[in-house]
Amino acid sequence: MWLISKLRQAKVALTPGVVTLKYPYEAKPVPKNFRGAPAWDHHKCIGCGGCANHCPARTILIRDVCKDVRIMVYDGSRCTYCGRCRDVCPEDAIEMSKEFELATPNKADLDVNMELFMLTCQRCGRCYDMERTNHIDHLDLRGYRYDDLESRAVIRKTSDTFDTELLKETENYKRPDKIGG
Amino acid sequence: MNKVYSKKQDLIQKIRQVSGESIENFEITDDNRIYIDHKADAVKGIACALRDEGARYLVGTASDTIDKDNCLSMIHSFAFDKEGFIVNMRTKVDADNPVMDSITPDVYGAGWSEREFQDLLGMKFTGHPNPKRLILADDWPEGIYPLRKEVPHNLVPPGAEDVAFQLDNPPEGTSVIPVGPFHSSLHEPEHFAVYVDGETIKGCEYRGFMTHRGIEKLCQTQVTYNEIPYIAERICGICGSVHATAYSQAVEEAAGIEVPRRAEYLRTIMLEIERLHSHLLWLGVAGHLIGYDTVFMHAWRVREDIMWLCEKITGNRKTYGMIIIGGARQDIDDALQGDILTSLAKVEKEVMALHKAIEKDSIVHKRTVDVGWISKKTAIDWSLVGPVARARGVDIDVRRDHPYAAYDDMLFDVPVLDGGDVWSTLVVRILEMYESVSIIRQCLKRMPDGPILTETSEELPAFKHGISVVEAPRGESVHYMITGDEPRPERWRVRAPTYPNLQAVPDMLLNNEFADFPIIVGSIDPCFSCTDRVIKVDMKNAHKGSSLTSGSGATVLTNRDLENMSRSKGK
Amino acid sequence: MEIAYLFINILIFLLLTPLLDGVVRRITARLQSRQGPPITQGYYDILKLFGKQTLFSSPYWSFKFAPILAFASIISVIAFLPMGGKATILTPYGDIVTIIYLLTLGGVSVLIGAISSRNPYAMMGASREMVTMVMVEPVLAMSLIVAAMKYKVLTVPLTAMTTAASFSWTAIPMALLYLVALQAFVGRQPFDIAEAEIELLEGPFIEFSGPSLGLYKYYMMLKQFFYSLLFVILFIPLPLTGLYAIDVLFQCGIAILMVGLIAVVGATNPRLRIDQATKIYAVLVVLSLGVAGLSAAGF
């Protein structure tokens, strides 16, 4: 009857206590395969454009500025976090991060811009990205020179093959006091 | 099985008798679908014959085939629930004079489908009792039919001020109370003009489709097959998986794709979890609508557990992204299975506590018993679906009658009650929750190993028809699919369960008090975003009086943005 | 001294009631397993409303005047109320009829405001409020009349009807009836029909904004505490300490408990329809007439 219903309701109402989470004062971690904003690893990206082709929201854009440079723009303001880009990427360069606190008054904060330096395959003529960390190496590969005219120095190879351990040893070399001595 | 076969043969005999010369072809497929190709003049005869045999109207689909044979085709679909097959009547009319008979006077459920195609394709249905504008905005110019292929998907005609929908005149002695488009009892914008006499409701007129987004047109022109499940999921916030499943199943049926068994089990699990989620949400909303906020808060507290569970399984609290053409996208490992069972046990306990607490509360009964009563006959006439129909004694459930996914292996009851009022819908939904828990447990126990996805290329055979029905928490969703020669559907028709249910709301409201208006509308569990989704070409802000000059660009509409592709579509 | 009592009355009411609104919301929230707003939220709400702009959506002067009338009526009746067993300077000038009149004036001002806002939802809310007032005020009137019968005068009773010195048996059933009707007096579930948010979008108050709405909200809060305090004054005997401060604290404490009771009952019930509520009110009216009759017969 009505009174017993009320007592049962009181039990339902009072048993759980206060369930309000203290977010945002206490962080609430997200589970393992949470789909947050996508994050690109530019070391692994080969510039194939698969993510741009398969994004249902049409929010990943690609422009080939010239034969050598491909720009990829991810416009985060329209992304639906479906994860399809991650599914189709052949190099596993995209990871759906755990970022979900993405509110911002400036839409540009959510953008990801990647500029990829592409080479052309000699056999088929299509672009691909060859990972070098250094622009001067890029130029060197194409047969261009970039000497340091300002300090009158010739630059052949870059310092990414520089051995810092060897340099340390040179500090212990004893220099001769005088010529011939 | 023999009984079903002979019923099919009997049916074909009867239809041949009714309109023999007008029938061009019968096609019976293995998936329990019958396609009848017939001439347009026989549509009323065949529809009445099907209705007399006990069929239930599902959906009307019309499409534009002007580029092939200068015709507009129209397909009416009926379902035979006891026998478990679906009959589709296919016909076409000349595009220069697209006039057909309306079957609405005999089959009420076809009313809105026919009005929709009057708006969107320019077809004319003679004899329709209420041929008013349904979908398009009131200032949409005549002669532009958005679903026709000649009309681009992002067309923005210039708006007009001071054009209002012509509501019917209120009956004698009543005044009009406008409910909507903004009202605290409605979740989405729609307009009910309620005619009241004091506090008693004497009638109601509905004007909806204000959040019409143009999904069908978009998916027929811009995106490819594999991208559509993600869009289908966003037709509705709560029945996302349902639409993704129904679409995938329709494509799989049309193109003949086999889905691995484990994927079907995964689909079943996600669908039932969604049903739990939706019914808990509805329970809270129903409590809120009768002024009982405590039920609201507690039902949604229980629902939160399900959302956390889904976040663990799929990566998102809603819009799971799990179901794609050919199977499922992610697997459930043993740790996750353990999590599911723990959460289910907790949810079941809490639902039982809630159920016992409000079951005998006389004040809740005062607000819901004998409120919104309609008879079983009315429910059948309007082709109501879902818990709304099951609360009136109509024993239909697509999971049992036309089994899909893994439901043919599951043992479950379908709760059917006779009360006919809002309280019965509440009890039906709570009982369905217990059944959902049981189905998920059965799935987890019996799930076979194996692959979860059949990779499909996007080159599917062209112009094949498929229809799939899925039991959403609100009722039955129907998707009709015609594959196309590009890697996208030629025609995709979505009919959400609220579509037929809304048509019966004026009957439910009659002679009830105005105070019961929110709970009666709430009792059909309206999902207006599901209902509105059809074709449209822009008009996202269909507020009356907003002037959109063509090419103004001032209003940012999602379809227009979607058009921005630097790479050409598909292959 | 009596002037001081007058101002103490008004100060206690004005300062304490928004806090009680916060208490009610906190209790409701705890029953709903959530945290709820801070207890001082009532103050913030009123301050915020007074800082906003009023949109005068209706051209009638009564639209501007009605909230002021409501607030004025409730402050006036507070001025008559004898807290702590001590009469204020105005108490001898009024009697129980004044109290009934001023409370009804408050309700009527809500009606005036609603009708002058020319909104169909406000009209419906106003008609429900009218029905409620007509059917539920008799219970209040009967409670006061029972007191009048006991003391044989119409003046505002300074002592409760249940003191050891002068115990009145009919006070007990009257108290029970008053408690049941209390939810209707203050407009909370199951009887918050007039301003049902879901159906009527706040009903009579829908067109008001800014300070006008602030005055109405303050009026509702004051009314809630007033009815609880009236119950205490009529039916709960004072501790015989003789100290004014202790008496006032005692009465306020019990009134606060009653407000808590209002909150609990409000959170655990759905809202009734007006036709269902009128049946309950009719029963209450008949019973309270019966009790008044008994008290007239000398019990």
Tell me about the largest β-sheet of chain C.
Answer: none
Name the poorly predicted regions of chain B. 534-571
The tally of strands of chain C reads 0
- How much helix, percentage-wise, in residues of chain C? 55-70%
Walk me through the structure.
The complex is a heterotrimer of chains A (181), B (571) and C (299). With 181 residues, chain A is an alpha+beta fold. Chain A has 5 helices and 6 strands, in the order αβαββαβββαα. In chain B, a hairpin with a 2-residue loop joins strand 11 (323-324) and strand 12. In chain B, helix 8 runs antiparallel to helix 9 and helix 10 packs antiparallel against helix 15 (422-446). In chain B, 54% of the residues are buried. Chain C is globular, with a radius of gyration of 19 Å. Chain C is an all-alpha fold and 299 residues long. Chains in contact: A-B, A-C, B-C. Chains A and B meet through helix 1, helix 2 and strand 2 of A and helix 6, helix 9, helix 10 and helix 20 of B.
SSE order and pairing:
The complex is a heterotrimer of chains A (181), B (571) and C (299).
Chain A: H1 2-14, E1 38-40, H2 50-54, E2 60-64, E3 69-74, H3 84-88, E4 94-96, E5 112-120, E6 127-129, H4 135-141, H5 164-170
Antiparallel strand pairs in A: 1-4, 2-3, 3-5, 5-6
Chain B: H1 2-19, E1 23-29, E2 33-38, H2 43-52, E3 56-65, H3 66-69, E4 71-80, E5 85-94, E6 99-101, H4 111-121, E7 124-126, E8 175-179, E9 191-197, E10 200-207, H5 215-221, H6 228-233, H7 240-255, H8 261-289, H9 293-314, E11 323-324, E12 327-328, H10 334-359, H11 362-368, H12 376-381, H13 387-390, H14 398-401, H15 422-446, E13 465-472, E14 475-483, E15 489-495, H16 498-503, H17 505-509, H18 517-523, H19 528-531, H20 558-562
Parallel strand pairs in B: 2-5, 6-7
Antiparallel strand pairs in B: 1-2, 3-4, 4-5, 8-9, 9-10, 11-12, 13-14, 14-15
Helix pairs in contact in B: 1-2, 7-8, 8-9, 8-15, 8-18, 9-10, 10-15
Chain C: H1 2-31, H2 41-50, H3 61-80, H4 96-116, H5 120-151, H6 171-186, H7 197-200, H8 210-235, H9 244-267, H10 274-296
Helix pairs in contact in C: 1-2, 1-3, 1-8, 1-9, 2-8, 3-4, 3-8, 4-5, 5-6, 5-10, 6-8, 6-10, 8-9
